Amino acid sequence: MLSFILRRLVIAIPTIILISVFVFTLQKLLPGDPVLAMAGEERDPQVLEFLREKYRLNDPIPVQYFTWIGNALTGDLGISLRTNQPVLELIGEKLPVTIQLATMAMIFAMVIGIPAGIFSAVKKGTVTDYVANVVALSGLSIPNFWLGIMLILLVSVKWKLLPASGYVPLSEDPLRSITVMLMPAFVLGTALAATLMRHTRSAMLSVMSSDYVRTARAKGLVERKVILKHAFRNALTPIVTLTALLFGELIAGAVLTEQIFTIPGFGKLVVDAVFNRDYAVVQGIVLVTAVGFIFMNLLADVAYVLLNPRLRKQ
Amino acid sequence: MVQESDPLPSPDTGSDKVLLEVRDFSLRFRGAPSDQINHVNFSVSPGKTLCVVGESGCGKSVTSLAMMGLLPAGAATIGSGEMIFEGQKLDLADHTAMRKLRGSRMTMIFQEPMTSLNPAFRIGDQIVEAVLAHSDASKSEAEDKALAILKRVGIPAAEKRMRDYPHQLSGGMRQRVMIAMALVNDPSLLIADEPTTALDVTIQAQILELIRDLQAETDMGTIMITHDLGVVAEIADTVAVMYAGTIVETGPAERIFNDPQHPYTIGLMSSIPQLSGPRGRLATVPGMVPTTQNMPEGCRFATRCPFAQPICAKEPPLAPLEGGHAVACHFAPLETHLEQSA
């Protein structure tokens, strides 16, 4: 198991290098001068030149890359051109917010999506199955921003049940922090719930026609046990893999939801950095996201092995 | 769920006890134009083996799955007939009652040992689960029972094997585990659906021998579903030959082998390769089994039968001959008929 994880980590290294080169090059190809964005109204060539020197923007691009990646390896992702804060610090501030949002959204998605998927697989071809599929399709089709705005209108403005926006750190007041984030997490989770439901349904359908499920019935087990133990345990592999990958996507994809509910998360950081040509921050964010994604992938692979006795012993 | 019913004497074996009797049983799949199982009759006695023989798609497996209540809900409707098990009528619609019988009184093993065990659970746990599903035994009592039966079916180092996953066992070992799982609750009826088809020839013989030994020990009745006449010769007390959902011939094994009366059975028998005698092309039964979509009226074998006559448009009844032998053919017994027409 340990050697498996190590092997996967070694394979991840070239991926990360490739991503870093790609991001760095792309940034350089984008139109717009970060120094101009930084200097604002100031157009004095001497000031601009000073800034270029300061941020080493005059070095050849490969040198710039190696400086950046070398520093990144020591945990130094550079300094934000805009706020003068270290990039790592900025990310460290915003990432937990988004992780909390993504985790809560994922819980919503799993609690809704997985049971719905099992249920519609068991009731395949009935009205229940049909209704569940229609609901799932609506979940996928309704745009996040629309659902978010509607929920704010109803739950916050009309019924005054939950706050419309804002963020309270988990460490400050856990209960309040969770309450404030309920609505955005639900909005973010619905589309995922639909995806999870569809995948759970198809995974369940494929295992439910398998021979060992027939054996479980032939043993005289109650149907609940046949479904939840013998079938679901084998359908779990694709579901867990999907969940891990979706979670990686959530971190990157929370941008819109964070904008609607004005949550000071990762998404907002990305948007601000891109608009302000804050190279260092954009690069840092992409690198961290990529590493996070690779980590979730690794987690999915580990789960895959743990769930599958055939792979475990090898 | 159950109604009292007089146990019938078995016409086939001479034994006066009948474990399972299937009477005039018909079943049709949803949307099919004709019956998949057409007025089937057979019975099994305790300690005896009934072999149901026939080509693929003739309805052997469907009949056994129906008996176990394992056909998918709503997939088929029962047209006629009844099944009497241990003197009581089976109510196939009563899912709870059928579930309680399954795995305890009547059990089943399948063709594919490679895929019939759940790959995610240890084999010991899968057997323990079968015990616990039907009794109030404690976990450790169930484990003892599982270990004992694994030893009985010939699993070497059974204590260690209990903790193995199915993929760590060979096909023959897995079929032994399936047999252990089926027998752990001392059933009175074992339905074996082609249990040796997927195995090597040497393993086949071992598995058949194991089933026969266990049967002798426990007085369990067995329905062996197979298309392999070698298996039938090896293990059968009585034989029911099935063709396109009907039983065309039934009787004691030696009579079916030595004196087959139905043209289809005769065709089957002559397709067995012989070691002695002149060599030639292996005989086959020409044509294909008709599907429910194009089932002929009357005798279902008529389209492939070398003796077919206009009368075959009428369905022949399963008419008794001597010695528990019965044939569904207008021309039985064949000898008399051939003499008459000569």
TrEMBL record, chain A:
CDD domains: TM_PBP2 (cd06261). Pfam families: BPD_transp_1, BPD_transp_1_N. It comes from the Bacteria. Residues 95-300 form the ABC transmembrane type-1 domain. The chain crosses the membrane at residues 9-30, 99-122, 134-157, 177-196, 235-261, 281-307. It is found in: Cell membrane. Belongs to the binding-protein-dependent transport system permease family. This is Dipeptide transport system permease protein DppB. It comes from Sulfitobacter dubius. It is a multi-pass membrane protein. Keywords: Cell membrane, Membrane, Plasmid, Transmembrane, Transmembrane helix, Transport. Its main location: membrane. PANTHER family: DIPEPTIDE TRANSPORT SYSTEM PERMEASE PROTEIN DPPB-RELATED (PTHR43163). The gene is dppB_5. InterPro entries: BPD_transp_1_N, MetI-like, MetI-like_sf.
